[in-house]
Write a structure and sequence with these properties.
The chain is α/β, with parallel strands linked by helices and 209 residues long. It is built from 9 helices and 6 strands; from the N terminus they run βαβαβαβααβααβαα. It is 36% helix and 15% strand. Bound molecules: adenosine-5'-triphosphate (ATP). Adenosine-5'-triphosphate (ATP) binds next to β1, α1, β4, α4 and α8.
Length: 209
């Protein structure tokens, strides 16, 4: 069981947001905060993916950098934590395996809330064992600028979309791709990610080539 400074068995509602976090940014933080507030979550775990099933891993920054940036971005927010659970796993880390492991840690009385942006939610049919994910956790799909959350009902089978909670909130129009693009072309990323992350990116020359 991972040691994160709290008792896994002490919670009744745990939020989980997974991502490449390359880098973590204001969109992730706003999505997590909105879900935390709306669903009265005891804690939100940010889980950087080791080998993300949806992305080509060769272009992804080292796990250590993505993990440290997530820590820098969240360490001053009560209830936000960064888990290395997927970084520790060999090979591809699938969400369903992570959810099952976390459920075994928190115990049966804690409900898991799996927080995703609209883009990820629309991709649900491509996830491994989507129905098992929907059974294991309450999937919460948040609006994201540029993606149509209301399309979910048309894209997913009715039985699946009925199990997903949608939450329309205003999250910043930012993506990690845009941050990497800006850094590579020498543009400012002020305001898109916390200052500590911005300084980390500059100090380690991430994304600059
Ligand atoms: P990239 O641009 O590299 O694809 P990303 O910005 O989409 O990255 P991820 O780490 O892939 O970030 O996203 C993790 C989770 O956060 C996903 O569920 C994604 O939908 C969600 N998310 C990312 N940005 C936002 C945003 N601006 N608003 C709401 N949700 C977001």
């Amino acid at each position: 069981m991972e040691q994160l400074g709290f008792q896994w068995s002490s919670m009744s509602r745990l939020g989980i947001i997974g991502g490449t976090f390359d880098p973590i940014h204001g969109g992730h933080l706003a999505a997590a905060a909105a879900a935390q507030q709306h669903y009265l979550l005891d804690r939100v775990l940010f889980i950087p993916s080791g080998h993300p099933p949806h992305k080509n891993s060769s272009h992804i920054s080292p796990a250590r950098d993505r993990y440290l940036m997530a820590l820098l971005a969240t360490c001053n927010t009560t209830g936000f934590h960064v888990s290395q659970v997927e970084l520790m796993r060999e090979g591809t880390a699938y969400t369903i395996d992570t959810l099952r492991l976390l459920q075994s840690w928190v115990g049966p009385d804690c409900r898991l809330f799996f927080i995703v942006g609209a883009d990820m939610a629309l991709d649900l049919p491509t996830w491994r064992e989507p129905d098992a994910i929907l059974a294991e956790a309450q999937v919460v799909a948040l609006s994201r600028p540029g993606y149509d959350l209301s399309a979910l009902e048309g894209v997913l089978e009715p039985a699946r979309s009925a199990q997903i909670e949608t939450l329309s909130v205003s999250t910043p129009d930012v993506s990690a791709t845009e941050i990497r693009r800006r850094v590579a072309s020498g543009q400012s990323i002020a305001g898109l990610t916390p200052d500590a992350v911005r300084q980390y990116i500059a100090a380690l020359h991430l994304y600059s080539i």
